[in-house]
């Protein structure tokens, strides 16, 4: 393969080197171009030999396996004539299974290594026993003491809160109600006029605004039956 460049790296074993070549070339692990990958694998071993690096026997075994698979790929596949006969398995299947298994263990190894590095950032020590210098009075447990402390603590908290007064004028509320009536075709439910905060002061302002609108003959009230919703209706102008 002309122009092929090899960066010599240290691999833990033949599967690591083979997986490196597959990932570097972005190959589909289920459809490995065995001829190309075999050539790259042999080139890597050749480069190691040129640098006088001793090649472990397991790398040579993998090289022989790749060459064998390559030769089997060149032979015609047997097509079964009868239903009882089986197809020849893909010569690469065993290698693919081993690569998938290797990749699982490699990913798990990387995960465990990452967890070990994170764990190394922490320092722990065994629990210590402290001698009791001050014993509690007889009949008093830690739980009762904590409850007593909580009661004292809560007694120091003020049982009131300051709330800022909300200013909602009757005139503003009149405008709100008229706006809602025009928006809803002249008819809205009484509860719908609470559009701001829904506070007690707004309810009072809304009620007074409603009385003012009735006095001005701008609206009238309608309720079909007892306890049914109360509707505010806009009078025709």
What does this structure look like?
With 237 residues, this protein is mainly alpha-helical. It is built from seven helices and three strands, in the order ααααααβαββ. The protein has helices spanning 14-24, 34-50, 57-74, 93-119, 142-155, 170-183, 200-215; strands at 187-189, 219-222, 231-234. The model has no long low-confidence stretch (mean pLDDT 80).
Keywords:
237 residues, 49% helix, 7 helices, 3 strands
**3D shape:** elongated
Mean pLDDT: 80
The ordered string of helix (H) and strand (E) elements is HHHHHHEHEE
The rounded Rg comes to 43 Å
Main β-sheet description: 3 strands, antiparallel
Helix content: 40-55%
Number of helices: 7
- Derived from helix and strand composition plus strand pairing, the structural class reads mainly alpha
Query: How many strand segments?
Result: 3
Amount of beta strand: under 5%
The span between the termini is 94 Å
Low-confidence stretches: none
- The side-by-side strand order for the widest beta sheet comes to 1-3-2
Structure in a nutshell:
It is built from seven helices and three strands.
Topology diagram in text:
Blueprint: H1 14-24, H2 34-50, H3 57-74, H4 93-119, H5 142-155, H6 170-183, E1 187-189, H7 200-215, E2 219-222, E3 231-234
Antiparallel strand pairs: 1-3, 2-3
Helix pairs in contact: 1-4, 2-3, 6-7
